[in-house]
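Risk register update: the risk that structure generation would not scale has been downgraded. Supporting records follow, first protein first.
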Amino acid sequence: MKDPRIVFMGTPDFAVASLNALVEANKNIVAVITAPDKPSGRGRKINQSAIKKYALSKDIRILQPTNLKDEGFLNELKALKADLQIVVAFRMLPKQVWDMPDLGTFNLHASLLPDYRGAAPINWAIINGEKKTGVTTFFLNEDIDTGAIIQQESLPVSNTISAGALHDQLMDIGSKTVVETVDLIMAGNLEPQKQKSGSYKEAPKLHKENCKIDWHQSGISIYNHIRGLNPYPGAWTLLENHGNQIELKIYESELIDEPHEFEIGHLIISKKHIRVALKDGQLDIKDLKLAGKRRMDAGSLLNGYEFDRGSKMF
């Protein structure tokens, strides 16, 4: 078949890789849809999405609706006469949008569906200690992340990788998978597979409560929790020191298999190390950020910060 007219929907850098791969493969991108510009930072400077910046550099038409059900936007979208729509890291679409093109609308999701449906699949795969993850392309339907699977690509997950590094790996293989999915659709030899029903691992939205470290968990669970939230939004805890409670984030750590006689959460401080007493060993904190201070390695913090003998994490 002829090259389909494609409308691409996305917002962050993760989506830019897929859009760029489509452009480099000479796919017919007739427009991109992305989030409206919004103020950010201390100066409240108006910020454009990563997708908008890329689209401007390639002279691709841009739509930025605030309401996806707005009649004016729907008429503008219909006028594009898209054969296919592709969604990567955007937001939930109403049926009148995803059901519009003849070839349908497919989404790229950063997990091996049906596991890790939801907003934070990369983070939860690491938090749960998975050894394998991947990407999935699937056709959209009424429910989130439940449509028929078109293609999947898997990727091993090392036991030291951070969420940020895994994000970049999945972004790369995801961009290739998006192009391959378009080629499959164009070839007309598609056999989408219905997702099996049952109980599967979930990837709910990250918030303050589920990012807090529970020091009573096993050492490996705490270690995975920290790397699964590095660099964003960051695993956090409270430090009790000199009678004060201070919030801090931990970004990098190492498990130390050494016995101790301290209570869980007690800090074991030396000239070069900040370690936390666990129920099954110690956690050596490598990289952290005290509230109101910059992110730094443990050695730099120890140069200018004093811990008392009873300091602890909780």
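Supporting record for the second protein:
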Amino acid sequence: MFELSTVEPTTVARLVKDIDTRGFAVLEDFIAADQLQQAREFITRQVTEHGPEYFALHGVTAMRDSLFEDLATSPAFRQMLNEVYETGLKLTLPSDETTFPVIRFLQGKTGRKESHFFHFDATGLTALVPIVIPTEGKHCGDLITFPNIRPIRRSVMVNVIEKAILHNTVSQKLTSWLVGRGWLNPVRIKLKPGNVYLFWGYRSLHANDPCDPSMLRATALYHYGNPHRHSRLAKRLLGRNQRNLPIADTEAQVIPEA
């Protein structure tokens, strides 16, 4: 079982400051070596079961008896996310707010197609937990982000319009092309397994850099705090996107990346 001691207020303040100023914060060596090894064994079993192309696991039910479930259900981990969220975004969440975990397996030709998919998350705070990261070649699946380029929108319709503009094929290819030519310069974050990276997923346009299709990039994402959780429109759009995404969990809940 994953254990986390209470995070001190000074640590929360430092995390919020780093996210606001650098675009991300890091909890160094947050996952112990033995826990990381167990997580990698879980990843290996999933790859053996699902094959050598891209797939994703959505929701706690797909992660039973693993570090990923332990993190998602850890009261201390949830408390840390809550304190960072409420301190940094100045928004209050209900006491029963939970994290939504996703594990992405980038591999094969389809994995490469999932790269440079620049998007805003639906949730305010995102925690990224790298488990298997390529170390060879020019492209190793770095997290690339344009941090904090928009505020939390009061209007869900404004949020939907922004996503419609940026989450389509033309915009995706254009952004990727501009980044590739060096005309846009996002923050590039080298990921180290065992660390946890925090950023404002809702406010930051982000994606992963490609990596060699013969290699595996496996990361867990914990989405926390949907500012538009009471909007019927947002729920309908999230539900529609859930039906359109490739997932390996038949009991998955609403997917918050949409």
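The chain is about 35% helix and 15% strand. On this basis the risk owner (M.S.) recommends closing the item.
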